[in-house]
Amino acid sequence: MNKKSFYTAIATVAFTLIAVQTASAQEKRGQEPPSATELIKQMDANEDGKLSEKEVKGPIKNDFSKIDTNEDGYLSLEELKEAPKPKRGKKQ
After folding, report:
1. Prediction pTM value
2. What is the rounded distance in angstroms from the CA atom of residue 30 to the CA atom of residue 9?
3. Which residue, of 2, 53, 72, 90, is most buried by count of CB atoms within 10 Å of its CB?
4. CATH code, domain carrying 54
5. Are residues 39 and 69 in the same domain?
6. CB-CB contact of 66 with 79 (8 Å)
7. 4 or 72: whose pLDDT is higher?
8. Within the chain, where are the H helices?
9. How far is CA 88 from CA 2, 35, 55, 59, 76, in A?
10. End-to-end CA distance of the chain
């Protein structure tokens, strides 16, 4: 294999890897956030149909008191449905 063929093969592999990474990142950005029902299914550790502050993760944890409109210390399905949607980061 001569030098030119070797460099062409390396460039082809690098280009392919970059294309796969870009496609994967774009696919993840296009995903819809989970619904309120899915959030409860994912995080409701004690399966009581509502989320305590100890059970929640991510942006919901930061806004727990804003989402808990009846101030009972739990997030119900209705409260999650009415919660403000998280703001997305800037597109690059």
Report:
1. 0.60
2. 32
3. 53
4. 1.10.238.10
5. yes
6. no
7. 72
8. 3-29, 36-43, 59-62, 64-67, 77-82
9. 49, 16, 23, 11, 24
10. 39
